[in-house]
Amino acid sequence: MHVIFAKDDDPSPAGVVSAVVMPKRGHLPPARLVVADHLRSDAGAPVAVTASRELGLDVASVELDRVVVFVVSSRGARENLELSRAILPGLVTAALTRG
User: Fold this and answer.
1) Pick from 97, 71, 90: which is nearest to 17 by CA?
2) Which of 9, 41, 84, 89 is deepest in the core (most CB within 10 A)?
C-alpha cells in the first residue's frame, strides 16, 4: 500500500508526504538513527518507531513481523516524526489486522 499526502495544498516535492506499507523481506539495513520513539496502534499494540535521514529524506519506520511501514518526507526530522505519530497508528493497525 502506498498513500501520498499533499501537505497544506502544496503539491511540490517539499509538500508531499509518502506512507508505504510493504511486505518485509529480511531485516531493514541499520538506519542512521536520529530518534527512537514508541506509539500505540489503534488496536492498542505498542510499536517502536525509528526515524532517520536517508538520501536527503526524513524517514520514520515501524518494523512488524511481516510488514514494514514507512513515512517519508522532506519536511525535516521533527515534522516528519510528528506526522508519523498522527498516521502510523492507523497504518500499523491496518497492517496488523490484515494479517
Assistant:
1) 71
2) 84
CA 35 to chain centre: 13
Residue 85: phi and psi, rounded to 5, are -60, -30
Kindly report the pTM of this predicted structure: 0.73
Chain center to CA of 13 = 17
CA distance 34 to 86: 19
Alpha-carbon gap, residue 31 to 42, rounded angstroms: 26
Whole-number pLDDT of residue 44 = 62
CA separation for the pair 71, 49 (Å, rounded): 10
Positions of E strands within 7-45 = 16-23, 33-40
Pull the grid cell for residue 87.
498516521
Separation between Cα atoms, residue 40 and residue 33, nearest integer Å: 20
Tens of pLDDT along 15-58?
788 888 888 886 665 555 455 566 665 556 677 788 888 888 88
